[in-house]
Amino acid sequence: MREKTPDDFALIADPVERARSISRVMAEQQDLIAQLARLRRTAVAEARAAGVRQDAIARSLGVTPGRVSQMASAGARDVADEPWDAWGATGEAADRLPEGPQGPDGELPMSRVPRVTVRRALPTQPAVRGSASLFMTEAGAQGIRPSRRMLHVGPEPASDHVAAALRVEPGTEVLARRKLLLADDVPVRIATSYFRLDVFGGTPICAPDFVRPTLQAGIEALGHRFGHAEEHLVARPPVGFEAETLLLDPGEWVVQVLRASYGDDGTPVHTLETVCAASRHVFPIAQVTGADEF
């Protein structure tokens, strides 16, 4: 069957069906890109382990040696983080296990990952949101060992709900900063910050690593002052990329928290989409007092 082109979607008469079809393909492509990026990182790590020089790989890929170093390190972590590694089955071998791997006693584990529960306050206290990392501060206070890993920084088409929060048309290219958050080495959240490129393009917010000292400070350094925010919470099944990245078991859902922050002049400044593994979270709700943050 011939793969559909943008012109094919333009021919769909019903505008809602047209938008739905395009959104579905965009989500599928995001999954594909994430999987290919993981495979590329693993290939780079394998090449480095085999003794291929970093500068030779960089020339072949058309990237900087520093970027090759980042991919090699991430690729090594990807291999180490393969599901079922604790039982001695990884990669394709794990895929062939229909019900999960057997432990030393022959019993099947209840889940693919150790049990962990993180509290995610709604709304977040301003002092926590204004810290170097909301997650690192919040999880650390709960006696959990937190860590984070940058997954992607770059432009991508805005989904419907992100576009509405940023007040742009769906499909408009926006800056995405996506990271994976782990508690005791268990993936628990995918947090993606979205910014309008016509406001933040070419600024330090586009840097490929974490913004120092904090993202909040980086936003304020560009002259933005917090006005108000709106948070929306939705429970839903995960898309493929989310299920794979969070190592979710079949049937597990996610909780999506979308926080849209606006400057004191009404400019849409920062939209944060946090996709939480539902079985690994509780959401205490409390009244927030004091000044808020982006």
Task: Please explain how this structure is put together.
- GO terms for molecular function: DNA binding.
- One of its GO terms (biological process) is negative regulation of DNA-templated transcription.
- A hairpin with a 4-residue loop joins strand 6 (254-263) and strand 7 (268-277).
- This protein folds into 2 domains: 6-80, no CATH class; 118-282, Chorismate lyase-like (Chorismate lyase, 3-Layer(aba) Sandwich).
- With 294 residues, it is α+β, with helices and mostly antiparallel strands.
- The chain is globular.
- The chain contains 11 helices and 8 strands.
- A 6-stranded antiparallel beta sheet has the order 2-3-4-7-6-5. A two-stranded parallel sheet has the order 1-8.
Question: What would the keywords be for this entry?
Answer:
294 residues, alpha+beta, Chorismate lyase, 2 domains, six-stranded antiparallel β-sheet, two-stranded parallel sheet, 8 strands, UTRA, UbiC transcription regulator-associated domain-containing protein, DNA binding, Chorismate_lyase_/UTRA_dom_sf
